[in-house]
Design brief:
By secondary structure, the chain is α/β, with parallel strands linked by helices. The chain folds into 2 domains: 30 residues; 270 residues, 3-Layer(aba) Sandwich (Rossmann fold), CATH 3.40.50. The protein has 12 helices and 8 strands. It has an 8-stranded mixed sheet with strand order 1-2-4-3-5-6-7-8, with helices on both faces. The longest helix has 22 residues. The protein is globular and about 50 Å long. 41% of the residues are buried. This is Alpha/beta hydrolase. Pfam families: BD-FAE (PF20434). It comes from Candidatus Sungiibacteriota bacterium.
Length: 302
C-alpha cells in the first residue's frame, strides 16, 4: 500500500511539473506585474445604470500622468462567453492587458457586454457602443484624453470593434463622430462570417453562429467587416498569431488583400509563435510580444 501511495504521489508530482512547465508563461504569479506606483485600477464602474453585471467596466490608468491616450478593450469568446474577469486568478486575463499598457502610459478600459443567447449581435454591438460613449463622456475625469481614443478587441471582440470601424452607421445612430476614434486594433478578429461558417462543422454553426446571427447567409454578410472595406477606412492594426485558428489565417489574409486592392493601407502583423489565445495571454507575461506593437501603433496614430 505504501509503495502504491508513493508511486501515486510521484506521478502526481510529475504531472504538476509538466503542467507548470507548459503553462508557466500564463500563470498570474509569474507575470511581470507592474509596480502599484505605476498603475491605478478602478473596478466595476457601471456604463449603463440598469443593474446588469454585464454593463460594467474596469479602468487601468497610468499614475502621475495626465491627458493620456485610451485603449478600449473588448474581449472574445465567440459572442457567447467571456468576461472582463475571465479566469483572472489563473491566467491574469484581462487585467494583464490593462496593466501592461497602463505601465507604458496608456489608459485602458476593459468592458463587459451582454452575450448570446441573452441577446444577439445587435445587443452586443449596442453595449460596446454604450461603453464607448461612457468613455468619451467620462474618461477626462480620470485623466484620460477622449480625443485620443482607440478600440481594441480579441477574436469576437476584434470582430465587434472592426465592424464599428468600417461601418459608420453604428456611431452615427449613437451620436458618436467616427473621427473621435483614432485607430482600431484587431487581435485575431473574425472578419468574414460566411467563411467562418463554411470552415466549421454543423455543431459549431448551431451552437455559435445561428445563436448569434441567425441562419441567413445575407445576414452573415451584413455583419461581416469584409462587406464594408473601402479605401477611406480609418487606421487599423490587424494582428494574428502564426499558429492561429486554421480558418482565421487565410480569412484574414484575404481581407488584407481586399483592403490593399481598394487602396487602403492597414498595418498587418503575424506574431511569430503565437496561438489564438496567446494574442491576449502574452500581454504582461515573460514572453510578451504583444504590448510593444500596440504601443507603437498608438504613438504613430496620435
Amino acid at each position: 500500500m505504501r509503495k502504491e501511495t508513493g508511486m501515486t504521489i510521484f506521478l502526481v508530482l510529475i504531472f504538476l511539473v509538466a503542467l507548470f512547465t507548459y503553462q508557466k508563461r500564463n500563470l498570474t504569479f509569474l507575470r511581470l506585474t507592474p509596480s502599484p506606483n505605476k498603475v491605478m485600477v478602478i473596478k466595476n464602474i457601471r456604463y449603463i445604470d440598469d443593474g446588469l453585471e454585464k454593463h460594467r467596466l474596469d479602468l487601468y490608468l497610468p499614475k502621475n500622468k495626465k491627458d493620456f491616450s485610451i485603449v478600449q478593450f473588448v474581449h472574445g469568446g465567440y459572442w457567447t462567453s467571456g468576461d472582463k474577469d475571465y479566469y483572472a486568478a489563473i491566467t491574469g486575463l484581462y487585467g494583464s492587458t490593462g496593466r501592461a499598457l497602463a505601465a507604458k502610459g496608456i489608459g485602458v478600459v476593459i468592458q463587459n457586454y451582454r452575450l448570446a443567447p441573452d441577446v444577439q449581435i445587435d445587443g452586443e454591438i449596442d453595449d460596446v457602443v454604450s461603453a464607448i460613449k461612457w468613455t468619451q463622456n467620462h474618461i477626462a475625469e480620470y485623466g484620460g484624453d477622449p480625443t485620443h481614443h482607440f478600440l481594441m478587441g480579441h477574436s469576437a471582440g476584434g470582430h465587434l470593434i472592426t465592424i464599428l470601424g468600417l461601418d459608420p452607421e453604428y456611431f452615427a445612430r449613437a451620436g458618436i463622430r467616427s473621427g473621435t476614434i483614432r485607430g482600431y486594433i484587431s487581435l485575431s478578429g473574425i472578419v468574414d462570417l460566411n467563411d467562418m461558417a463554411a470552415k466549421n462543422d454543423e455543431q459549431f454553426k448551431e451552437s455559435i453562429i445561428y445563436r448569434v446571427f441567425g441562419r441567413d447567409p445575407e445576414t452573415l454578410m451584413h455583419y461581416s467587416p469584409t462587406s464594408y472595406i473601402q479605401k477611406s477606412m480609418p487606421p487599423f492594426l490587424i494582428m494574428i498569431g502564426e499558429h492561429d485558428f486554421d480558418y482565421l489565417i487565410p480569412e484574414t489574409n484575404a481581407a488584407i488583400q481586399k483592403m490593399k486592392d481598394v487602396g487602403a493601407s492597414p498595418k498587418f502583423k503575424v506574431i511569430a509563435g503565437n496561438t489564438h489565445m496567446d494574442m491576449v495571454l502574452k500581454f504582461g507575461s515573460r514572453e510578451d510580444n504583444m504590448t510593444q506593437p500596440v504601443v507603437d501603433f498608438i504613438h504613430q496614430s496620435q
